[in-house]
Design goal:
Blueprint lengths: L3 H9 L3 E6 L33 H18 L5 E6 L9 H13 L4 E8 L6 H11 L3 E9 L3 H6 L6 H11 L5 E8 L6 H14 L3 E6 L2 E2 L3 H8 L7 H13 L6 E4 L9 E3 L6 H15 L26 H7 L13
Parallel strand pairs: 1-2, 2-3, 3-4, 4-5, 5-6, 6-8
Antiparallel strand pairs: 7-9
Helix pairs in contact: 7-9, 9-10
The structure holds iron/sulfur cluster.
The site of iron/sulfur cluster has 11 residues, from loops.
Amino acid sequence: MNSFGASLRRRFGGRIQRVSIDAGFTCPNVDGAVARGGCNFCDNRSFSPSRRVRLQQVSEQLDLGMQSVRRRYDRVAGFIAYFQPATNTYAPVDQLREVYQLALGRSDDVVGLAIGTRPDCVPDSVLDLMSELALRHHVSLEFGMQTMHDAGLQWMNRAHSHEHMINAIDRARGRGFECCVHIILGIPGESHEMMMQTADEVARLGFDAIKLHNLYSVKGTPLGEEVLAGTIQMMERDAYVQTVVDFLERMSPETIVERVSGDAPPNYLIEPKWCLEKSALRLEIEQEFQRRGTRQGSRYRPPKVPPCMRPRPADNTPQSIRDQIDTRGRLPVLKMES
Ligand code: SF4
């Protein structure tokens, strides 16, 4: 696998660690801009449109995170501020710039940003901002695609379609920042063949990096309730390992593999418990590659139209989301207090 750690080492000459930041964003799938309730696997109870995070708290999170990493590892060459919970491009662009620059300017050791978002929440104004920041820093924009199948997206209550993902990546690719895709394996109703169709679609669309997650359930979510009631089964460990290897064989050898499983804190996770054994799982995946005599990219078929040759489409961001982003001043979407 073209692993994330190795790719960062090549670029920065040492260990780079991510520090997770909660900047107080909410989500258009929670506040009603496109839907309410959020995705069925997401514990979004805290994503209230009225919550406030002070700018100082963003700095404090970064400082505490960096200190904690330094206690764990002897040598750290730098940090990536990872804007992780909620939809981290969902605020007026001026506010986004303010919070991202705050993180980048906090310390010379902050070498870049990773920004998690939805495919329907990246109007051109946000992509322009990413390109601007990427002139001097490593910037990774992480899209929650999850699957190429709209039935699966509907089951999760994502409130966007795969068409939004195609539109977003065709506008975002090749603009100086990294485009990373999040995929969930084990969505109920998706066969192995359907997951491989998603793999081929990821390869066709030409993302720079990928994070693979098993579907897992946590407390306080609609999915968690269904799993506890026994109406939904999570994927078995062996099937997951096989599926990950099948998936990565279809990826380009150039694609950076940032994750091969997802997990949650043990007291919060319902099922499957096996995903807590991250290192063992990774080893099993590597051993399965060895057993087969294959590697990432073994079954990659370059798309007929190279991703860089795909035409750039018109921005299809929903108007209700643009109304929150393409505006001046401060909206209640993100209430930062200096
Ligand atoms: S889009 Fe992301 S933040 Fe919003 S509800 Fe879904 S998983 Fe949660």
